[in-house]
Each structure stands twice: as C-alpha cells, then as structure tokens.
Amino acid sequence: MIFLKRTPLAWLNLIHDRWKFLTSLAGVGFAVLLMFLFTGFMNALYDSQLQLLERLNGDIIMVNRLKSNMFVPIAFARRRLDQVRAYAGVSDAYALYISEANWKNPITQRTRPVRVLAFNPADPVLPLPAVLQQRDRLQRLNTALIDTKARAELGPTTAGVITELAEREVRIVGTFTLGTDFASGNGNLIMSDQNFLRYFANRGPDEAQRSFATADVGLIKVAPGTAIEPLVAVLQQEIPNDVLILPRDGPDGFVQRERAYWEENTNIGFVFSLLTGMGFVVGIILVYQILYTDVADHWSEYATLKAMGYRNSFLFWVVIQEALILSTLGFIPGFLVGGLLYGVTGNITGLLFRMTLGRVVTLYVMTYIMCFISGAIAVRKVQAADPAEVFGL
Amino acid sequence: MSAATPTALAPAVAIRQLNYYFGRGDLRKQVLYDIDLHLPPGQIVIMTGPSGSGKTTLLTLIGALRSVQSGSLQVLGQEIAGLGKHKLVEVRRNIGFIFQAHNLFASLTACQNVEMAVELQGQFHSKRAQAVQMLEQVGLGDRVDYKPGSLSGGQKQRVAIARALVNSPRLILADEPTAALDKKSGRDVVTLMQHLVKEQDCTILMVTHDNRILDVADRIINLVDGSLESDENLETFVATHDPKALDRRMFIL
Ligand SMILES: Nc1ncnc2c1ncn2[C@@H]1O[C@H](COP(=O)(O)OP(=O)(O)OP(=O)(O)O)[C@@H](O)[C@H]1O
Ligand SMILES: [Mg+2]
Fold first, then answer.
1. DSSP string, chain B
2. I need a surface site. Which of A134, A177, A224, B63 has the fewest CB within 10 A?
3. Hey, is the C-beta of B52 within 8 angstroms of any chain A C-beta?
4. pLDDT score, position A113
5. C-alpha to C-alpha distances, A189 to A178, A295, B232, nearest whole angstrom
6. Where are the alpha helices (DSSP H) in A56-156?
7. Is the per-residue pLDDT at B7 higher than 80?
8. ipTM
9. pLDDT over 70 percentage in chain A
10. What crossing angle do the helices spanning B110-120 and B153-165 adopt, rounded to 10°?
11. Yes or no: is domain B13-252 CATH 3.40.50.300?
C-alpha cells in the first residue's frame, strides 16, 4: 500500500525523456529479440527432428536396433511386425518404408535429395487430413504427394508437377504439409508401398535393394484400454532383439530418444546457447548503460535524497524498479517482433518454430534476470553517492 | 521571540573540541582545529571565511553526513559522535538541507519534489496538502505542478527551500544557497528563509560569501584555516570589517 502512495520516482525518471525512454525500450527489445531468435533456432532444429515422429500413428514404435536415429538408413525384418500382431492388446501394426532419392527440379533441372515416405494407403500410417483425403490418388502408377514446406530448391510444390525421382518419371498428385528435418533432405514425398517398390526395388548395383521383406519404421497400434508400458515390456522380452521396441511418447519413448540423440551428438545446443548468452550479455550491457546514465545524470539528486534521510535500500529499490520496468516493457516489442520473425524464418527454412508458453516465460525470466543484474551493478554507483559531496557542489 | 529564546533550552548544536582530518597516513591533513560552538535555538547564524577554510566540512559534520573523528558534537540534543551509519540517517531526517544547487529531480513536479521529503515522515495521506501549503508559503502556489525545467533559478531554489522546510526541521543547514542566483532572487530567497525560520522557530546555519545578505544574521562566525576566528553579532562584525566590502547602508536597504 505504502508502495502505491509513494511518488513513483523510478517510473517518472524513466519516462521523463520520452525519446530516450523509447530508444531504451528498443534496446532491451533488441536484446530480447536476439534471445528469441537464437533459442528459436535451437528449439526449431530440435523440434523439427520430431515433427514426423510425433505424427506417426503408432502407440509403440519398432526400428532396427542399429538405427540410432532417423538419419541411419537401416531397415528391420518385417516379419517382426507380423509377430507382434499375435500379442494380446496389439490391435494393428503398420510398416513405414523410407528411402532417400534424387529429385529433379522441373524448372532448373538440378537434382536434389529428398526423402520418400511410403506405406500402404489403406493403413492410417500418417493420418494428416491431406494424406487421408488423397490416398486414392496414390494408388495410381508413379504418383506421389509433395510437402508444401519442402525447400524452394525442389521447385514448385503443387499437384500436376511432372518430373524425375530416382531417374524415373513421377507425377505429383497432391500436397500435404509436414516440414523438413536433418534426415529429410530438401523435403518429403509420400507414395504408396507399391510405387515405392517400383522406384527402389531395382536401383542399380550401388544402391540398397528394397523389398517388402524389410521396413524402416514399424508402427504398433494398441487396442483401447490396454496399458502401453507393460505391453512394451512383454514385446521387448519376447521379440528377438535385433529390433528396438519403444513407446512413442513419454520420457523413455522413441520421440524423446531421437531428441536426445540430436542434443547429445550435435553442437546445436552449445552453439545456440552461446549465441543466446551473447544476446543476454548484450542486454545486460545495454540496460546497465541506461541505468548507469540515469544514476550518473541524477547523481546529486540521489545524493540529496540520501542527505535528507533516505536509505541506500530505498535507492536500491528505485534502480531495481527501473530495471523491472525496462525488462517488462522491453520484452513486449522483443516478443512481438520475435513472433513475426519465427513465422518468416519458419516459412523460409521449413523448420518448425514454436512459441510455447513455457519458452516465453523462460525468456521473460531471463530478461528479468538480465535487467536485475544490470540494476545490481548500476546501483552500486548510487549507493556510493556520498551525500557529503553535494554540499559545496 | 526567536533571538530572545531563553538559553536554558537545549542548544540546536553544541560542539566541543571538534577536530577533523582528511586522508590517511602521510596524506592525513587536518582541516578543523578545536572547534567549540554553541547554537541556541532560534538563531540565524552565518558562517563566513576564506575558501578552503573548512566551512563545508563543518557543515557536513553537523548535518551527520560525515562521521565525527574526535571531539563531541551534539545535534538537537543528541550526541552524534560514535553513531553508526544507520543512526546518522535518522538524525538527518530532522535537519533541513539547502545546497548551492537546487538538486531537484527534473522528472518530478515542484510538488512531487517536496512530497519526497514528506514521505520520509510516513505522512502519505496528507503529503500533497502539506507540500502545496509549503509551496504557497514560498510564493509558488501557482507553480505547484510545474516541473523544474519550467521554473526560474530563484523559483527552483525556493522549491528546494520548501523541500527543506516542509517537515518543520528545528535545524537548517545551508551552503551558499544564493550563490547561483542573481542579486534580487538571492535577496528574496534569504528574506524568505528568515521569515519562515522566525515562524517555525528553528535554527539556521548558513555558509555564504554573499555580503549582501549578512544583515539577516543574528550572529556571524568566521572560520579561518579550520579554526573559529571570531564569533560576533552583526553590529560588531560590521564595525570591525573592511567598510568597503561591507557597506552598512546596503543592510539597511
Ligand atoms: N573529500 C575531501 N578529501 C580531502 N580533502 C578535502 C575533501 N574535502 C575538502 N577537503 C579539503 O579540506 C579543506 C576544507 O574544505 P571545505 O570544502 O570544507 O572548505 P570551504 O571552507 O567550504 O571552502 P569554499 O568556501 O571554497 O567552499 C580544503 O583544504 C579542502 O581541500
Ligand atoms: Mg564550501
């Protein structure tokens, strides 16, 4: 209550010079924006690795034990998936075939690697609405759907495109929306398992020969009311261990394993944390500069307050309030522009930029800590203000 | 009533054998020597002396802005030699300070600047009323919500005086309050202080080089090289000093 009745010195000092106040906020906003962009890239790189896996229609995932991440092109014997069908609680099991192939850009004629995802169109393997609607078209010879988020290098991503895939003609009969990741090359195509065989069963001596005897990812659907964890335990126990069987979700799940792989085996985290840290430090310096200037400009006024009988703790509080105001009001433009740039960069790169509440709160807390540290450094200057020295000034 | 206040009352300031040194070790330099000084309540005392003689140092000691090193210094009945920093801050709240510079926050209105002083006493409900009343007394009733940027030098100094007086302190310390003002505003400010002080019955210790305002003093003390050289009333001061520098007629004006 007393707080509300006091003269709002911190606020009035900050806004006294409107123009300076606005540039201060822009400065803080810029530091916030840097942090948003770098953490955004980091999260986008991780999140993008998982966007396919999160959409696969299986409660339990089966892959070759040697497939340590989605980048490794090792398939497993499909009969393992058929074995699983016999267990109580398993309602269905689907095979997903994956292969890399060269795509010829119909405009530039340059070839680029893409990832082909294939499955029986009758099975709901990747139940995106667009895929479900257009699965009849996949039955036709040499057809595929293309990801609208594929990189621009592939050329137009629209139905009707006719070009070459793995040196064989392909006709795009529709589109879907997924996004790219490290293993997807320049984008994803979806085709039927029958077409998949046409492209990849006899690809020349240097390439892997594909058949229905092997699959890349197995999706196991669990009957309603069946607990997933115990079933996974049984399957892990009884199915030969050349395959790895994991629940899709949860802390020990397949999705998390993939994320952990990229976290542990790339420098993404390190590099982007470093860059975020730099944004943080830039922010500290900026805010320190702002607060320090305020303190230096009002040095004799603050010293006069001390002479009048205000304590250091009061002046400390004034500077900390200024830091708080700057962090809160500077965060807003940083957040808004950050959100805008997430959308733009997401469109250009095909990566998944997600602004979740948790991430926004984390960055706000970081902004607050940033301003608090600056305030704590700047405040030492006010506390050092010797009231004896304003006499005779 | 002011000058005639019975000396039986506790003195506003009582100094005995006060010495003060700046620096340490080889650089240690004494600036105040064996100061003895009693200021009874209700007096306006002007302190003069050459530059560097220690006037400001003495003022800051009395104002509890520096710690006493040796000797005894009582302010408003309280011994402040040996007090900790925390206690010194409390002593300061009973003293009004007026500096050469007004030291007002440019971001606060005249009224808010004065209210900052009232808030120290915890009187949040009446702070505006008190500040406005004080500003009216210094003749700024029509400038209450102006910021210092749109006030003249003399008006700003009057706001600073309002800030120093609003809590009715029993001791006011002023260091060359008129130095930054022109002749007329300086005169106005001092007359105002004199007027208000007589009303509130408090003690003023004012350092000044400004001969034109010596006439408001009940007493003039002269500090030379850190020692109190003379301590006399206005009449003797004028009589014993160079008539060229101190034109008696000016005081009568
Ligand atoms: N913080 C300090 N550290 C060291 N010496 C100081 C300090 N402040 C003042 N002095 C010295 O103490 C002596 C007295 O200074 P003081 O400021 O009290 O003089 P003054 O009488 O107020 O002078 P003026 O009329 O010029 O304001 C001077 O010699 C000065 O150099
Ligand atoms: Mg001085």
1. --TTS-TTSPPSEEEEEEEEEES-GGG-EEEEEEEEEEE-TT-EEEEE--TTSSHHHHHHHHTTSS---EEEEEETTEE-TT--HHHHHHHHTTEEEE-SS----TTS-HHHHHHHHHHHTT--SSHHHHHHHHHHHTT-TT-TT--GGGS-HHHHHHHHHHHHHTT--SEEEEESTTTTS-HHHHHHHHHHHHHHHHHHT-EEEEE---GGGGGG-SEEEEEETTEEEEEE-HHHHHHHS-TTTS-HHHHH-
2. A224
3. no
4. 94
5. 10, 61, 104
6. 79-85, 129-133
7. no
8. 0.85
9. 98
10. 20
11. yes
Give the pLDDT score at B239. Answer: 62
- Print burial letters for B236-251: b (CB count within 10 Å at least 16), e (below 16): ebbeebeeeebeeeeb
Interface of B with A in 71-90 (CB under 8 A): 86, 89-90
A1 or A36, greater pLDDT: A36
List chain A residues with CB under 8 Å of B56. 391-392
Measured in angstroms, the CA of A353 and the nearest CA of chain B are apart by 43
Q: Please give the angle made by the CA atoms of A199, A203 and A206, to the nearest 5 degrees.
A: 150
Ordered alpha helix ranges (H), chain A:
2-5, 9-16, 18-55, 79-85, 129-133, 193-200, 228-238, 254-265, 268-297, 299-308, 312-349, 357-384
B176 and A393 within 8 Å at the Cβ level: the answer is no
Per-residue pLDDT tens digits for A116-144 = 999 999 999 999 999 999 989 999 999 99
Chain A positions in Cβ-Cβ contact with residue B125 (cut-off 8 Å): 5
Q: Spell out which residues of chain B touch residue A307, defining contact as CB-CB under 8 Å.
A: 63, 65, 92, 97
From chain A, pick out residues whose CB is under 8 angstroms from the CB of B105: 9, 12-13, 298, 301
Q: Among all ligands shown, which has an atom nearest to the Cα of A391?
A: 2
Residues in chain B: 253
* Chain B (171-210) residues lying within 8 Å, Cβ to Cβ, of chain A: 175-176
> SS3 of A38, please?
helix
**Residue in B19, B27, B32, B55 to alter for ligand 1 test, most ligand atoms within 8 A of Cβ:** B55
| B81-110: average pLDDT | 92
Q: How many CB atoms lie within 10 A of CB B211?
A: 14
Top-confidence residue, B201 or A135 = A135
Q: Could you give the CA distance from residue A346 to residue A360 in angstroms, rounded to a whole number? A: 17
Tokens of A147: 């990801």
Domain boundaries, chain B: 13-252
pLDDT for residue B123: 85
Residue window 209-228, chain B: list those with CB within 8 Å of chain A. Answer: none
User: Ligand 1 pocket: which residues have CB below 6 Å?
Assistant: A 392; B 22-23, 31, 49, 51-57
Whole-prediction pTM:
0.76
B20 touches chain A (CB under 8 A): no
Q: B38 C-alpha to center of ligand 2: Å?
A: 21
* Distance separating alpha carbons of residues A126 and B17, to the nearest angstrom: 94
